[in-house]
């Protein structure tokens, strides 16, 4: 089941304590992962152009701190057809909300959507576990 956690639902006071496991939260960072499958028949040149425009958002939309992507290379056959993954980093949930509402992001999203067969969006606060 796919789900998205929107900024208004973040619980900044979440803390897990255990004798064997302590959780250390990355202070304020928020990451958004997108898994996408482009529609069959989308020309590779068009996908390449979309990827270049998406990568350029980090230069145009100030709340976006970093952007990474990769093409699925899994051999496990568990990818459910998703072809690309994108990782976006923001300094806070507030900055993510600013990004979502930014006109350049909105314009890009409107141009991207018609080329997608399916998408999963997950937003999370990175954590590191130590014993």
UniProtKB/TrEMBL annotation:
Residues 30-124 form the Stress-response A/B barrel domain. Gene3D superfamilies: 3.30.70.100. It comes from the Eukaryota. Pfam families: Dabb. Homodimer. This is Stress-response A/B barrel domain-containing protein. It comes from Eucalyptus globulus (Tasmanian blue gum). The lineage of its organism: Eukaryota, Viridiplantae, Streptophyta, Embryophyta, Tracheophyta.
């Amino acid at each position: 089941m796919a789900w998205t956690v929107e900024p208004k639902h973040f619980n900044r006071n979440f803390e897990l304590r255990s004798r064997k496991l302590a959780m250390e939260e990355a202070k304020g960072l928020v990451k958004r992962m997108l898994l996408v499958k482009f529609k069959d028949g989308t020309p590779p040149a068009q996908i390449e152009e979309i990827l270049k425009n998406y990568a350029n958002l980090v230069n145009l939309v100030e709340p976006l701190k970093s952007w990474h992507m990769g093409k699925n290379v899994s051999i496990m056959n568990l990818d459910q057809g998703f072809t690309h993954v994108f990782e976006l980093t923001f300094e806070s949930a507030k900055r993510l909300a600013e990004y979502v509402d930014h006109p350049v992001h909105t314009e890009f999203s409107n141009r991207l959507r018609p080329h997608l067969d399916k998408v999963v969006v997950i937003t999370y606060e990175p954590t590191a576990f130590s014993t």
